[in-house]
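Sat 14:20. Reprocessing the chain from the morning session after the first attempt stalled halfway. Input below, unchanged.
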Amino acid sequence: MTTTDFWAKVTDFTQTTTHEVGAHLLKGFGSATAEAKADGSLVTQYDKWADAELSDRIAKAFPNHGVLSEEAAHIFPATDWCWVIDPIDGTTNFTRGVPLWGISLGLLYRGTPVFGHVYMAPIHQHFYGFWPGESGLDMPTGAFVNGEAIHTSTADPSGSHLFSLCARSTRVLQRPFPCKIRMLGIATYNLLTVASGVSLGAVEATPKIWDIAAVWAIAQAAGAGWVALDGEHSFPLIKEKDYSSHPFPTLVTRPDLIEKFEPLVRVILP
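Finished this time. Tokens:
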């Protein structure tokens, strides 16, 4: 298979698979019963079904690729290629009938994301992006939503521009902030608002690897800067490590705005 054919297969697979899985999930939207996991997050029978369905489809389409998933496979495998699955990002929104939740698939090469696809099923938006970074791969670049290129905003911070927080980063509000604040209840879409130019920045205090793997590629392909607020290198992931409880405190914003926003959001750290 040529490089061009491989990436065409990846793009078609993620588009088709997330659309079909999303269609089934919409049947449970707003009516699914949730239970709390050990970390306090919610899970439904739809999360578990989608996790298994996505894993099975990946195994059939890419038999040599590994899988890391929120509901089942938490150990990063010793394979060059690995898919990171979040079957429903925004499960609370999903159970409560809030139309902001999505399916996230990130493709990692030697531990670092190079492609991501997030399908926001209720609003029918497919976000995807290619980001070779320092991988050395011969591959496309760019970020898109429903086939249209997306980019970060060129605007300067003001009271009429947006910045997104997560539920665990509200300490940011203890002092004046230069933008209007939004809270969306879904990590992937929260960060994707920066990639698509909707907001100037976004912060997530305790996202897990399945929350960020796909968006890491999409956001940077769209021109965003990615800051690991704990000072650690988010990638590459470590082979055979259990990532079930590993947090990745993250700021995403335009590179030239990092100096402005980073000091304001560091208050979210323990």
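The chain has two domains: 3-149, 162-268.
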